[in-house]
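Q: Is it fine to ask for two folds in a single conversation?
A: Yes, each is treated on its own. Send the first.
Q: Here.
A: Result:
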Amino acid sequence: MTDQSTYFRKGFGLKAEVEETLSADYNGQLVDLLRASDYTLSAGPVTVRLAREFGFCYGVERAVDYAYQTRAKFPDRRIFLAGEIIHNPHVNAKLRQMGIIFLQSGEEGFDFSGVQPEDVVILPAFGVTIGDFERLRALGCVMVDTTCGSVLNVWKRVENYAKDGYTSLIHGKYYHEETRATASQVARYAGGSYIVVRNMEQARDVCDYIEGQGLAREAFMARYEKQVSPGFDPDVHLVKVGVANQTTMLARESLAIGEEVGAAMERAHGAEYRATHFRTFDTICSATQDRQDAVNALLEEPIDVMLVIGGYNSSNTISLAAICAEKVPTFHIADSNAIDVETGTIRHAGATAHDEVETQGWLPMDRPVRIGLTAGASTPNNKIGEAVARVFRMRGVDPAGLV
């Protein structure tokens, strides 16, 4: 049990007190206008179409709201944050300006050496590992837990897999905060195990192993040593498998991986074996699914260029950009500053989230243009609106005349 005098998951009843500050920091007039105009703004040669689901989701709004409430509740205490509250540089910069101290994570978890019992520690929307949680609880400091409810649902699924003797096969990025926290849930039961796969290619390695082909044991372990639980043995731990996922992954890929692993177990051992040794559930969060569905709907219309706004390390934003790039030239930008109106260039994510490249001539200038726009679940409305304004300025339209 957690001490209810030092552990908070439902805020502090200060929502009204911080609402004005939150609105000033994150609301955007142009986004409000887009909503009121059937998600379309046209002026001169430019039409901007906004996906009908975009930007801050409930879990992100809640996490940011609780962080602001925490500052209001404890104005004179040191407040720490375990990592980033969400993957958006603008939001995290605002929290730093409020005096919140960001803790760094390493191989062994977060460094809590500077945290004292009288301090406050905010847990991010991604959650933290069981080990980090227990170390904080032992310190006796105040903990403000903003872990998203969708993430908690996956944790429960993984915990149940471990309880029933199933290995959790998690579709996600093994180094991502959420996936690390999710994978740690298997430790609630002795012998709990997991393996993390990044994509279908890695899932097929697992399938091949289940079917007795592909990589030999030593080669398999060498390839996936960073992505499995301590003591993992594929000959033991791939007998009973339950599929889960990082909530922000590409939904269709998560579902396809689950089906592929189930089919491999059936090919290897038969339908009855699959029924008793394999489980899968769609644990993509509804907000992630809604944003992916909305961008797919937008792409059914004529679009010349897609802008996807969000942190380069935001998995749900990366997934949105991947969907768009299949159908139309797409630029994943961190924020509006990536669009240089004077030079006509755009800075955007390259081949990986760690690369940033600059492209000239990205926006057609010799004809009317239709710009599609969406944003990851951690992107505030004001940053979306600022990007819209710069797009219009690129073609000589004053955005002040739109509002």
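Q: Second one now.
A: Result:
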Amino acid sequence: MPTPVPLQTFAWIATHPWLYPVLEAVHIVGIALLLGSLFLVELRVWGFGATLPLPELARFGLTLSATGFAVAAFSGLVMASSQAAELIGNRAFLLKMLLLSAAGGNALWFHGRGSLRLADGLARLQTLISTALWLAVVLCGRWIAYA
């Protein structure tokens, strides 16, 4: 059985002169890619940009969103590992993790019911929930430093 890594092992990341700021910048780029492309697809579900075919826009936009999520998740995990002991007690961080789970659940529900194909009233409600959850994730992420 492997030996658990002590929480302090990655603490040097937070104090590195350029690594942590670079990780923060990468995290922001990932969030921008995730939310920017997701929001375009959600607007299309609402009927904006009706000349753009939804399946093609969704395939492109959601691929960019998934890439943005992967970049943000990786950089976020590395940053969180550098201050894990502090974050475990940080309410904004814990709320952010809860909201991320809810956003993931909403995405599973959206795609599981075929909401892109249906583009109905419930799909539009799901996009509103998605936007609200992701904005709350961003706000909580920003609030971590002040909580």
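Q: Anything structural to flag on that second result?
A: Two points. The chain has one domain: 18-146. Residues 14 and 20 are 6 Å apart (CA to CA).
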